[in-house]
Amino acid sequence: MTNDTQREKPRAIAIAGAVLLLFAMLGPPGARAQDTPPPAATPEPAAAATAAPTGATYVGAERCLECHDGVEATWKFNPHHGAVVEGATGGNTVGCESCHGPGSLHAEAEGDKDDPKFRTIRMFDKMKPAEASAVCESCHKTGQQFYWAQSAHSRNDVACQSCHSIHAAKAVAGKALLKADRATNLCVTCHQEKRAEIARTAHMPLKEGGMECSSCHNPHGAPGAKMIRAVSNNELCGSCHMDKRGPFLWEHAPVRENCVTCHMPHGSNNDKVLAAKRPFLCQRCHIASRHPSDLYDRPDLVGNRLFNRSCTNCHSQIHGSNHPSGKTFLR
Amino acid sequence: MRMLNRWTRSLAGAGALLLLWGTPAFADGEVTFGSLWWDQTEPEAKYQEFGDLPRGAYLESFLYRDQVGKGRMTLWGSKALRDDQAIGFSYKAPRWRFDADYTQTPHNFSFVTRTGYTLLDPAHQVLPDSLQRANQENSGAYVATMNDFLKTADRINLGFRTDNLAARFKTRPARGFVFELKGVRKNRSGNKPYGGSLGFSNVIETIEPIRQTMADGSGTLSYSKDRVSVEGVVGYSAFQNDFDALEWDNPRRYTDAAGNPTKGVLDLYPDNQQMRLGGSIGVQFPRRTAFTGSVQWAQTTQDDKWLPYTSNTAVAQSSLDSLPGTNTDAKANTLLLDARLTSHPTSKVSGTLRYRQNKYDNKTPSWEFAGQVPYDGSWAAGINDAHPFGNEQTTLGADLDVRPIPEVSLYGTVESIKRERTFREVLKDDETAVQGKAVIRPVSGIQLTARVRHGSRELDEFEIEDYENAGGTLIEQSGLRRFDVADRKQDLADASISWTGMERLVLTGSVGYIENDYENSVLGLQDDIRRSASVDAVLNASARLDLTASIGWSKAYTSQMSRRSPGAAVVQTDSLSWQARLYDESISAIAGLDYVAVKDRLTLSSMFHFERSPGIYRLNGVGAYPIAAVDLPGTVYKRTGVDLEAMYQVQKNLQFGARWAWEEFEASDFATQDIPLLFPVTGTSNAIFLGDNVLNYRANAVAFVVKRTF
Fold first, then answer.
1. Element of type H or E holding A135
2. Which of B28, B21, B77, B31 is CA-nearest to residue A73?
3. What is the Cα–Cα distance from A86 to B196, expressed in whole angstroms?
4. What's the confidence (pLDDT) of residue B310?
5. Which residue among B246, B260, B307, B333 is least packed, with the fewest CB closer than 10 Å?
6. How far is CA A146 from the centre of its chain?
7. Which residues of B touch A73 (CB under 8 A)?
């Protein structure tokens, strides 16, 4: 590649980005009318985020509870209940209509589902995923949800309501208003292969409840690959295994670059969730002369290189050593 | 003490029940209290690796929610008053909330071990002087002396526990602003089996004491107005190890000698600190177009004092003065730059452009050592350079999603990944990946998903000098390409089907395949192929009966090539090559039943789980390999369990329940079972292990519980 070409590449990327941005902002003819939601009764952020009925006005939560009396028991301890958020719909305090939109027409229908007015509030199970999520995004757009718009879940039509339930959360103490008792049990309903992986003999304490999928992944999106909660795998693992994050005097190169070169964090058949049984795992990279190059087969069961931690019986400081004599991780 | 704990638990549980027996006007919650008995066939084995089951009375869970002032408070606990408990508190006021929780996560090793060492604080494993002296003076009787000594040594428990205390304060101080403070403190204590060597093939397995503290705190300020959000974060974390070094006596020596130290010293994990700063901006445009950009920077430092080259006083370099410095003065900077632009220009088309750069810039100085004392035995002269490894990864990606008709969604991704490293045999590589995915909903109730991905990673240049010593002689096989940096073709394919055609039945199934082909690696890992399949079913058989079942299977196959070099020189001919083909398989199944036997009175539930993980090790010589290789014995880990529960509702808010659980664990692994105390079993016994290891067991548990809701 020539220097000229190298200089051209960033420029081409910048132009492509600008074109996409322009295309997005202007859109093809006719797209604007199609995508713009109908105006809400009162212009405010949440209502503007999705379709809201025209002509309806806010009636207050007390009016809603006149019919939906069973909701109060779960709602009164809901984290949204009574939250003061300036700019929330229907006043600065979050209530039913902050999410469902103004309810006067719906109330007038008096439970008659055939009455067109009945469907003038937002019914999330009837909405498209992106539209339903947009209502939540009107408040939840920073912190955990900062990257939602670009997350794999959003891209694949997963809505906030796919995992969370305002009125029927099953999580312990209503945590995060999850639809399952634990985040992990919710994740594996779609990520089936992970259910089998976390059941393997060597595993993190996921199935026991000591941690959750969401301990490492942010399901709302993150700048890291695989939506992990850190800038890299090593930074993520190091947040709990700080002892291994170094930097050390003597570094083991693959340890410094990526923990998952040797470990399978979702589960493995091998001790320490290793990707393969030692010594074979180590011998994939270390052949050299003498003992690293030997084939340890059945006759060697009388030796000591196949037992317990194998190579790391002696090279126990394999994640790095700070000892002046620790070049080969023996000290 | 055990009796006291039981009484404490009982009183606490009974007190909680009594306290909550009345029905507060506003509050709600529940408390589950009971008594548990369990037993197993091997008392030393661990019933649960990450759990700690009590015997006797216990408070299983509680939840208390009430209005306090203008806010709501929640107090909850699960597995309360146990060693794997989780207890939480939260208070939510209209403008702010505070959450705190405390969890304990035990990690029990299902080992039975014995050691003759005694732990002296700090981290000094000692043997009786008389034993060391006897072995030194009569080395011919070493095996007999040590066997006699170890057989009468105490059995000990191995395991550790992490206590995790987390707190969070979040407030909305003004319109558009959110401020959040978070803090976590983890204390890890216990022990685990560890190893150290006092000479070639002279490993001593010992116990590493663990007493570590990890603390992390961060503050985040966010502001959003209209379509713009910005966020800034500052954080700090620190790791502190109470044991800087682990010393263990050499059973063979009582007095230091050249080549024979009286003890070995390991430098345990050094303390480290990390400072973090970050900023993000998000802008929303019409048509669900969003731009986000992030910059995150962190600096990690470590400056623990060095130990001397050796603790062996008979070696001249045992003085700290022999070292070129006093500490590593290690420092590494991490930088993340991330920018993404997502747009939905029409209702049927969306796309994302992504740029991501992640750099680990290791600023640790390169240190040069005149030699080393690898086993605390003898000085091995020769220049040893310590290199600070760094790396950088830049990813440029584009996603395009099209939904031509409501029944079909198509997803495409193209990615270019560039990696750079310092002090590796491959300093640069490029990877290009293309992925396509289709989601089809041919009829109502059925969804088919299929995805294929192809990636090609090519190294830029291979630095053969990295495989040579200072004299230019090869010290590693020239044909070896380490799999983390080698040329690689990666193919992935997976598919799933979801069927909700019947009102009461949901069926989902998936299959997956991924292959990593290291086609240009003559030696090292050649192939890595993983297959998986799983099926889930949920059947609401009737208003009273729910059934769930799940089966998962996976199989991994890897093939690696190596070459034996029996002497000091690396053999470059093909005559001593060998191959290892490893198969790791796992199958797991879960089946559950929930049945309302008598409406509003009696519910029955059960759960069955089964996991089996066999491993197969096929070994063979290639070409003129002199000895016929013999496969290693296969390994199997198997766990089967059943849980049954019956809950009887006495009145609206009161339930009595009975539970029974059974679990069987079977392991067959040459590496962790029936380990003799002294190794090798033929020839000179030098190594010492902790003896017996993973044990099979069967366990039964019975519990009676009372659940009160209010």
1. helix A129-137
2. B28
3. 62
4. 97
5. B333
6. 11
7. 28
